[in-house]
Amino acid sequence: MKFYSIFIFIALTTTQCQAQDYGKLAYEMTFPELLEENSGITLSKNGELLYTINDSGGDPSIYTIDLYAKEIVQEIRLSNGKNVDWEDVTRYENTLYVGDFGNNDNNRKNQTIYWVENIEQIPLGSHTAFAKATTFTFEDQEKYPPKKKHRNFDVESIIVHQSYFYLFTRNRIPDKKFDGTTKLYRVPMKEGPQTAVLIDEFKTCSDRDDCQVTSAAIHEQTGKIALLSYNKVWILENYTEDHFFSGDVTKIKLEHSSQKESITFKDANTVYISEEASKNDLGNLYTLDLKNSK
Hints:
Blueprint: H1 2-8, E1 25-30, E2 38-43, E3 49-54, E4 61-66, E5 71-78, E6 86-92, E7 95-100, E8 111-116, E9 125-129, E10 132-138, E11 154-161, E12 164-170, E13 181-188, E14 192-203, E15 215-218, E16 225-228, E17 232-237, E18 248-253, E19 260-267, E20 270-275, E21 284-289
Parallel strand pairs: 5-9, 10-14
Antiparallel strand pairs: 1-21, 2-3, 3-4, 4-5, 6-7, 7-8, 8-10, 11-12, 12-13, 13-14, 15-16, 16-17, 17-18, 19-20, 20-21
């Protein structure tokens, strides 16, 4: 297979500079140039594979990394998908969900969530897959784009909980008005056009460069939720129903700032975090020990 011989066994860089300070993060691997704009990660059900995507303008493809071998072993290209601005990916049971809802300018009317079913039955190598799709609009957005002081309709984060999609916004309000508010929307987990219903808001912090939510993850067994920014993680737990901000919220400062765009749970007390490439370096994959980082 051509894909196998040329591409699939490109090993990910595993060497690192010993002097590099990663703060509270533990280095796992460096992504190849192919994934320099990786914007979402999620684990396979058995925890051995990491599914990842690139953001705006890339191929409509999901790439699979074998975490033991530290190499790409699969590309799944969506036959009916388009990568306008893919920003996050999550898995529930054996279905993978890809969020094409990046909306930096707050002017999109075509946000889409793609569903790839039976993801773990797709063989390794290069394949195409047909995806179901959910499209949505925000119930409280009337103008495209709205005035700058209302530009909080960019989404880079998705989780699945009790048959709904939950979306957290990345606040794009200019500096003078920025207060760190992320809005939480609920979308029925159904195909076709849906309405994103605003159900809550939460103020992360007031530094625009470091308080925008770029990814989210949920631990299926405990319900623990993680929100990510460039230098922080917020852990939400002990909440009631889908009032995620009603329980305990713990803020963890990572002590390492970079363009972090992706988070997923490895287990109840550990998360994987990845970053996009910078001008001089490729992006890395890290782990964060939640118990010993508070």
